[in-house]
Specification:
7 helices, two-stranded antiparallel sheet, Reverse transcriptase domain-containing protein, mainly alpha, two-stranded antiparallel ribbon, 6 strands, single chain, 11% strand
């Protein structure tokens, strides 16, 4: 394990401390289950009750057009062009955090990146050109993750999905749109930007206030 990346070290420690096993008996509403298949069916019932599938009969979801009030015209999604080398790089460098049940599929994506990049680039560009996103790309394996409370209660879990093809598509589009949008944003913008957050915003505000107090100047904050 590389000592130059402490994030990997602490992720490894965390993985050893966490217990991902489900309780032997779980319940949802008035139902109880004590074997894997029945527990899985209870999760299906609960997650299905919180999910809307109104548009599932339509094989495509139309991408909404930009608002007439949008100020950043240069960020038009139709200007994005995806090349095979973009996909090959994204597939090889992306860290797929998955369970063993999806191991072989993700291995195909990573090991076959060079061969799959050409057809995927065609599909991605076609999606952008037509303004349509296949609903099949939104289909995903679901992993129940415990939120809080009693681990035996199905309602204390939330579904985490792994849409691998869609994630590769999203990453490449994001990189190109971000490059276009970033220079047009004000320097005071901290949310949703790399290496910036509400914490960095508060640090700058605190520095501004402290500097004003040192100079005995009036400081107004809205």
């Amino acid at each position: 394990m590389s000592i130059t990346n402490p994030k990997h070290f602490w992720s490894y420690i965390k993985s050893k401390k966490l217990n991902h096993a489900f309780p032997k008996t779980m319940n949802y509403c008035s139902e109880k289950a004590s074997n894997g298949e029945d527990i899985a069916n209870l999760f299906v019932q609960y997650f299905k009750s919180t999910y809307s599938n109104d548009n599932f009969n339509n094989p495509y979801t139309t991408v909404p057009t930009p608002s007439q009030h949008a100020q950043i015209s240069a960020a038009n999604i139709s200007t994005v062009e995806i090349l095979p080398k973009n996909i090959s790089t994204a597939e090889k460098t992306r860290s797929f955090k998955i369970g063993w049940s999806r191991f072989y599929f993700t291995n195909i994506l990573k090991e076959g990146a060079d061969n799959l990049s050409q057809p995927l680039s065609y599909l991605f560009n076609f999606s952008i050109c037509k303004g349509l996103v296949p609903n099949m790309w939104k289909a995903a394996f679901i992993t129940p993750v415990h939120k809080k409370g009693n681990k035996c209660d199905i309602e204390n879990y939330r579904p985490i999905s792994k849409r691998l093809i869609a994630k590769i598509f999203e990453k490449i589009v994001y990189q190109q749109v971000y490059t276009t949008v970033k220079p047009q944003l004000t320097s005071e913008q901290h949310g949703f930007l790399r290496n910036l957050s509400k914490a960095s915003n508060l640090i700058i505000a605190n520095e501004y206030i402290s500097s004003g107090m040192d100079r005995r100047a009036q400081v107004d904050v809205v």
